[in-house]
Amino acid sequence: MKIIILGAGQVGSSVAESLVSEANDITMVDVDPERLALLQDRLDLRTVVGNASHPSVLVGAGAEDADMVLAVTAQDETNLVACKLAATMFNTPTKIARIRSSEYLAHPEIFSTVNFSVDFAICPEQILTEYIENLVEFPEALQVLDFAAGKVSLVAVRALNGGPLVGQQLQELRKHVPNVETRVAAIFRKNSPIIPEGDTVIEVEDEVFFIAAAEDIRAVMRELRKMDEPVKRVMIAGGGKIGRRLGVCLEKDYQVRIIEHNYKASERLAAELQNTLVLHGDATDENLLESENIAEMDMFCALTNDDENNIMSALLAKRMGAHKVIALINRRAYVDLVQSGGIDIAISPAQVTIGSLLAYVRHGDVAAVHSLRRGAAEALELVAHGDARSSNVVGRKVEEIQLPKGATIGAIVRGMPVTKGLFGETLGEDEVEHNESSNAQVIIAHHDTVIESEDHVILFVVNRKMIREVEKLFQVNVGFL
Length: 481
What we know:
Layout: E1 2-6, H1 10-20, E2 25-30, H2 33-42, E3 46-49, H3 55-60, E4 68-71, H4 76-90, E5 94-98, H5 102-105, E6 120-122, H6 124-137, E7 141-147, E8 152-158, H7 173-176, E9 182-189, E10 192-194, E11 207-213, H8 217-224, E12 233-237, H9 241-250, E13 255-260, H10 263-272, E14 276-280, H11 286-291, E15 299-302, H12 307-319, E16 324-328, H13 332-339, E17 345-347, H14 349-361, E18 366-372, E19 377-383, E20 407-414, E21 441-444, E22 456-461, H15 467-474
Parallel strand pairs: 1-2, 1-4, 2-3, 4-5, 5-6, 12-13, 12-15, 13-14, 15-16, 16-17
Antiparallel strand pairs: 7-8, 8-11, 9-10, 9-11, 18-19, 19-22, 20-21, 20-22
Helix pairs in contact: 1-14, 6-9, 6-14
């Protein structure tokens, strides 16, 4: 696939790195030649220096025969104009824009064909907010990811001493929670993946990924580790786009405090938020944290635009007694470094966001993609099409499907609305089956589970190099009509 990425920031660079490794033809456009030179030294891609909203720059990037334009610059207006140009001048099939402003997002008609011709709009800040909101709801988890319109969740937890299943074989899980269907999709032990079998023994500090219906998540988590007290008090460092959004989401159900160093921004936040205490100050100020009873906080979220401030404030909050701390860290080199040293969860915004983009780039009918373990692994929701003659998966038991080693089918959701055709094409409104997703059935996959056409199949892949092979399995034979 020939893809033009507009914007070589954190999101653009992460997407480029992921797509280049999957044998796509990538051209990166940015106004900063030094940033592009660094990327070109590291990745096999073309670069073009210039403004992404200028027609001549798009021509130089090869827009005439591009399959997709990913407009992910820091400016919404540049992204919108670039998508419009790609549609009207070059008839580019797929246009994706990063949109940060809630003003634009509140008016989806802006993205229609008659206006800016954006096929898919993504908002990294909103994606991050929802991601952190899940971690607040499930404080024991390292990651909580939703599939099939929220009917299925994939959760990563650290196995700790005191968990009923620690030191026991996985096959004991069914005895402990007899009324709950679940599947352990993967285990990472000392950063190495272990393919789970019935006789696999869970050890202390194992990172366990399990999949279950959303309503059964807590029951399974109790077997893997001692449950924390529900979160009641949350302190947020940084009242920017993400901090403000999180405050709006949480203040209805939690006691929320936001520390913002900019006085005018503090005033705006205080006027906008109804039940949140807004504090003007520095989140690395030990006296301020102590005066605001940091030791009583169930969760501390460092969400400023400065990595170093986030790291320092999170470490300080943890040392002063905050139960759990989360830090937003843009520089990938920092993420692995800090998560093993006092910070409970280090979040890479680019890695959280990238899944939303990859869902549109993958081959076949991909409903969702989530990047796991900072990009090393992936979870995918693929829709099975065709029949036993045209498909390698439909009409077959899970044990009969030739999955690459390290790929695991965790769950199947049957009865989701059909929005794409046999070959992954988007259906028109008159073609869409309007069955309600609330009636969909969640089936935890076993060796004898048979996949049917239009099933949403959720897979865990421990190594991203297997993705293309997995996608090929789900593609329909073009000779079948």
